[in-house]
Write a structure and sequence with these properties.
By secondary structure, the chain is mainly β. It is 0% helix and 55% strand. The protein folds into two domains: 2-15 and 44-150, Immunoglobulins (Immunoglobulin-like), CATH 2.60.40; 153-240, no CATH class. The strands form six sheets. Strands 4, 6, 7, 8, 10 and 11 form a six-stranded mixed sheet that branches. A four-stranded antiparallel sheet has the order 12-13-19-15, with no helix packed on it. A three-stranded antiparallel sheet has the order 1-5-9, with no helix packed on it. A hairpin with a 4-residue loop joins strand 6 (72-82) and strand 7. It is elongated, with a radius of gyration of 27 Å.
Length: 242
């Protein structure tokens, strides 16, 4: 018995490496065919789990295979995910086909599991199978698949105290390798404080782009920020009630 796990995410187009001169691009070939280059019509999946960020829903395709030449009996398949603080089931007795009376030679059974990622750090996906061999001996197989969950945003806070007034500055930085769109940034104080937003009002989405972009813009307020820092700053004034 063995397990194969593949993360279900958006595939990419296969990109062919240039193998002909630029003068031949698009030139008709014998038989009417043309020289193809660049993106093809073939999709390819990532070899590993890729970048996984906090707040995403992790989805994976799990395949349990009988690699031997004998039929197995009473197959019980389980899958769970272990974080830094807890262990959660992904595939249990309630899942269809997780309990099989017989499992033929070279046979495979497939599942799709999902989990909302609420913790950053190392996660371990544990796949296990319990079964009976033809001799009646019980066996158990367990495999581990480790991946790292990263934080997509980094928040830095600065405080300035002025009598009963607190000036608060929050800097939100995009830690991913792709642009992110922020629909809203809101600071909610405790009941003892009155909040006043000092940031220029915006009515559109803020886009935090990656380092390859020329700038990071807030379209409604026409605010431009350097791409190397990739951040959005929010300033708030807190007044102590009474």
């Amino acid at each position: 018995m063995s397990f194969k796990v593949m993360r279900l995410n958006r595939p990419n187009f296969y990109t062919a490496a240039p193998s002909v001169g630029l003068s031949l691009l698009g030139a008709p070939q014998p038989g009417g065919a043309s020289v193809g280059i660049g993106n093809s019509d073939t999709l390819c999946f990532a070899a590993g789990f890729g970048n996984i960020y906090l707040g995403e829903t992790f989805q994976a395709y799990v395949s349990a295979c009988n690699n031997g030449g004998e039929q197995l009996a009473r197959l019980e398949v389980r899958a769970e995910i272990q974080t830094g603080t807890k262990r959660l089931p992904l595939l249990d007795a309630q899942t269809p086909n997780s309990l099989l009376a017989s499992f033929g030679a070279r046979q495979c059974v497939d599942y799709v599991v999902s989990h909302e990622l609420k913790e950053a750090g190392v996660h371990i996906m544990i796949c296990s199978a319990t079964y009976l061999e033809a001799s009646g001996q019980e066996k158990k197989v367990r495999q581990y698949f480790k991946f790292q969950v990263q934080k997509p945003l980094s928040v830095t806070t600065k405080l300035h105290l002025l009598n009963k007034t607190i000036l608060l500055e929050n800097q939100i930085q995009n830690m991913t390798k792709a642009p992110l769109s922020l629909d809203a940034i809101k600071f909610e104080p405790t009941p003892h404080y009155t909040r006043e937003d000092l940031t220029a009002p915006t009515t559109d989405t803020v886009c935090l782009r990656d380092p390859l972009c020329s700038s990071v813009c807030c379209p409604a307020a026409s605010v431009s920020m350097p791409c190397a820092r990739r951040h959005k700053t929010q300033r708030t004034k807190l007044q102590v009630d009474g």
